[in-house]
Amino acid sequence: MNILDILQAFQERYDRTPRIFQAPGRVNLIGEHTDYNDGFVFPMALERYTRVAIAPQKERRLDIYSANLDEATTLSLNANETARGHWSDYVAGMAHVLEHAGYVLPGAMLYIHSDVPVGSGLSSSAALEVSSALAFLSLIDQTIPGPELARLAQKAENQFVGMNCGIMDQFISIHGQAEHALFLDCRSLDYQLVPLDSSGARIVVCNTMVKHELGASAYNQRRDQCETGVRLMQQHWPTIRALRDVSMTQFLLVEGSLPPVVAQRCRHVITENERVLDAIAALSTTDLQRFGRNMNDSHDSLRDDYQVSCEELDWMVEMARSQPGCLGARMTGGGFGGCSVNLVELPHVDSFCRSVAQQYAERTGLAPHLYVSVPSRGAHEINL
Ligand code: GLA
Predict the structure, then answer these.
(1) Residue nearest atom 8 of ligand 1, based on CA coordinates
(2) Which residues in the chain show pLDDT less than 70?
(3) Are residues 126 and 175 in the same domain?
């Protein structure tokens, strides 16, 4: 659906003219499962957006329609709503968190359409939270500084939806910029937009089209294991607050005394933070080979130490790495299905896409979706 379709559909449905806001999904280039350990991440916003059209109404009620699902739902802003395990939880959660932060919202009519594939690890949830947040704030003529808005959107997901995610997805959906990836320090929320020179290579996202159910519980379990590691290492170094503070030298001193699974999880996070820093340094000298090697190592560590990959992701990554011109391939996002991200030299992009799609389909019987992606602009209002 393009913007005019959304505008027209809104008018037909609600007989009003809306304002429209959009927020993108993201792909993380490197720095996986580091955000909730106060570490470093390097995502970029995708050219795929969730759009929320909105107009106020008198009753303190949200009428929400999803064009993707052709489904309408209604929520009261006065009742103490809780999550229902429904797509509208992200919208309700955002309204809930904003009200808790002191922003009193009027009722509204919403019309939602998204190009971000759901359940594919490209952050459709963050895109929905952030676009809803901008839409709600517009009703009361308010704006919130980006980092604070990212925290509120993360809170909607943590406290309302019940997914204990870090801040990466919401942050990049707000702060993304065309032609740039974003290097974020998840502790201080200091960030730097790093130009991605597209003259030599492209980012190709490969969707495995699978999503394994254990995702959410395994995610929260990984977080707990990281926190256990921190508690145990604090006995040696009381100033450690998060895995971000542990150097490789320190880790090697205590590795043998940690429960083996906890040691594996910590090793991933500590080495992954080092890889992010090395990858960023590689970009500053346009050393794409070195950037790609870090991506490869990241995947291997997520597969072997953090254990959040799955067969389909591993196949996709192996197939990618065997193609000419593939500089790096890794799973991206939380894991257990979803997408891989690949850095592919420009002259090889077409043949890469053809061969990987064909080999993956032969192996799994699934038709994967491949997206040649460029970094895009973060959340904003669409000028009608
Ligand atoms: C999900 C979460 C993020 C991050 C990634 C893993 O996308 O929402 O906060 O933890 O997994 O890097």
Answers:
(1) 165
(2) 215
(3) yes
